[in-house]
Amino acid sequence: MSKGEFERIADYFAPLAAKFGGAYGLTDDAATIAPGTGRTLVVTTDTIVESVHFIGDETADLIARKLLRVSLSDVAAMGAVPRAYLLNIALRRELSDTWLERFVAGLRQDQEEYNIHLIGGDSVSTSGPIVLTATMFGEVEEGRALRRSGAGPGDGVFVSGTLGDGVLGLRAAKGDLSEAKQDTVAALADRYRLPRPRTALGPSLAGIATAAADVSDGLIADLGHIADASAVGARIEFERLPLSDEARQIVMDRSELLAMAATGGDDYELVFTAPEEKIATLLENWSGVSVTRIGTITADSSVRAVDAHGETLLFPRIGFRHA
Amino acid sequence: MSKGEFERIADYFAPLAAKFGGAYGLTDDAATIAPGTGRTLVVTTDTIVESVHFIGDETADLIARKLLRVSLSDVAAMGAVPRAYLLNIALRRELSDTWLERFVAGLRQDQEEYNIHLIGGDSVSTSGPIVLTATMFGEVEEGRALRRSGAGPGDGVFVSGTLGDGVLGLRAAKGDLSEAKQDTVAALADRYRLPRPRTALGPSLAGIATAAADVSDGLIADLGHIADASAVGARIEFERLPLSDEARQIVMDRSELLAMAATGGDDYELVFTAPEEKIATLLENWSGVSVTRIGTITADSSVRAVDAHGETLLFPRIGFRHA
User: Fold this and answer.
1) What's the average model confidence in pLDDT over A95-105?
2) B54 vs B217, higher pLDDT
3) Are residues A30 and B49, on separate chains, in Cβ contact within 8 Å?
């Protein structure tokens, strides 16, 4: 690492904090942040480790953007509007300034895309794999934060966007889908590398959805978290799960991959519950990401997926992960 | 690691979050936190790495407590009362549950000592050195957060407690002070391993001190940060620097170590500036840590220490570190 920490903060990170008053140009002992009147702060934090959470061939800008987007997805799942973040980086000494410059370029790009600002952090050296932590702040009207615990029997179960692209994208990125068309592989790999957190939909659901989570562990697992927290069950109609054109192409040839739409993680879509009519009203003037009803909350405690004939499909609940 | 992450959170970490409503038992996508009316949140974050920031022979409970206390010190330096924290841990898989239990016991002990609560975090595996991040939240009346930038010429320069114990304690912990009395070595090593963040003094200074910082990089460096941010200088009277009895014993025999009181880091005392009379009023009813006036803010831009004869002593400004 050719620059000292002080210089690195001034050169690379202070500019990312310039527009947020409470960041004090990253020169103070701490930042200050206060929600608007009648609002509350939402805070979530994620740590990723080299060769565990990123496979190694990503460019540094993509690593930075994925790091932010995973946390942005959690903020969206709480119904909050993102505002600011902290960044903690543990880097190997031999990592080049070029890597860091590209990492910072990725941060800057997504700061602009999501209207967020760096407000603090820490930068240290490690002899081991890179460890990166982002802590994201959002803001939501007091008492309106979406929780996992409010789902009630009869509520519809909805998801945003499409499912399965994350896990198929991981396979694509690893070269495991070599039989598929190049465009398809590229689109899925991109979807894995660069999640699209639903930062517009999430805040629109505050006060409307009865429960919400983001699909990071896989639909069955994340809906399971909602069911557990709400002490209810859910019945999912498998054929309603929304697939992207690319995912559809893949599973047409390899139907054993279809189950991944239900169990694969890393989709960063929102799964939420609400009375059908409330969502219908919301969607009347909605021009954002697609929303699909995929099932219904039930009074028992099991999360089941059924096929077109009403037969129950069995999925292991996999991939628990702390949000 | 014998327990899965989900189980680990439920068993070890959820109990640490039980008393903070907005932590939602660590089962949601994010936590919520709002300051009281007319108050603002202060937030600071620190990352420590095994064999860089802790020397390796510390017990896990001491590592946990030092991690929290370093951040508590930053919150105190902003004049804020600590409230809650996030914890991100990257651990090697082979680390035992015993280690983690002891780590959690340390967290619990300092949660009680400082009346703070865990509200979220992330737990991941790494093949490299342990990387630990604590993000601490405090609360202060709006507009009263202590900054580094308010010092004015003529203000007194004050420090809490004693200086140099941190760096002498590091030497003691490493076995470099073998000629000294055992009690002295033990007391200094303890001071290094377990900082005493000035969480009572800090909030008392809000609205009184014109600038403040904690002594983490060393007095000269941290006062330098205040001077830079305030566009002033400072004149320190070297013989006024408060030393502990233990530090005094060491430097009596090895006077070359005396300079460390001015340049050594890891003291986690507060250095602050204020009109003399305001501090005198504060101290009239003060029964906490000692406060010593060590110098005066000047209109030029240099930070100088002078000896009893008024001769300038030269110190390199060392040890920049992001707060």
Assistant:
1) 94
2) B217
3) no
Residue among A40, A125, A135 whose CB faces B45 most closely: A135
**Which residues in chain A are contacts of B148 at CB distance < 8 A?**
27-29
Banded model confidence at residue B178, pLDDT cuts 50, 70, 90:
confident
Closest residue in A to B226 (Cα) is A28
Does the pLDDT of residue A1 top 50, yes or no?
no
The model's pLDDT over B85-120, given as tens digits with 9 standing for 90+, comes to: 999 999 998 888 999 999 999 999 999 999 999 999
Residue B275 has pLDDT above 50, yes or no: yes
Q: In the predicted model, is pLDDT for residue A317 greater than 80?
A: no
B143 touches chain A (CB under 8 A): no
SS3 content of chain A, % helix, strand, coil (to 5): 35, 25, 40
pTM equals 0.93
Query: Which CATH superfamily hosts domain A5-141?
Result: PurM-like, N-terminal domain (3.30.1330.10)
Q: Hey, is the C-beta of A142 within 8 angstroms of any chain B C-beta?
A: yes
> Cβ contact (<8 Å) for B320 and A6?
yes
DSSP structural state of residue A37: T
Q: What is the token pair recorded at B13?
A: 């970490």
Q: How confident is the model at residue B76 (pLDDT cuts 50, 70, 90)?
A: very high
Residues of B in contact with A86 (CB under 8 A): 43, 45, 135
CA distance A258 to chain B (A): 26
Tell me what pLDDT residue B226 has: 96
Q: What is the DSSP letter of A11?
A: I
Q: Which residue has the higher pLDDT, B291 or A322?
A: B291
Write the ipTM: 0.92
Size of interface A-B (CB pairs under 8 A): 213
B33 to chain A: closest CA residue: A41
Interface contact B124-A52, CB threshold 8 A: yes
User: How far does the CA of residue A266 sit from the closest CA of chain B (Å)?
Assistant: 14
Q: Binning pLDDT at 50, 70 and 90, where does residue A319 land?
A: very low
Task: Output the average pLDDT for chain B.
Answer: 92
* A183 CA: distance to closest CA in chain B (Å): 33
Nearest-CB residue to A126 (from B9, B33, B129): B129
CA-based angle A161:A167:A168, to the nearest 5? 90
pLDDT band at residue B43, thresholds of 50, 70 and 90? very high
Domain residue extents for chain B:
5-141, 156-313
> CATH number for the B156-313 domain, one of 3.40.720.10, 3.40.190.10, 3.90.650.10, 3.50.50.60?
3.90.650.10
Instruction: Indicate if the pLDDT at residue A318 is higher than 90.
Output: no
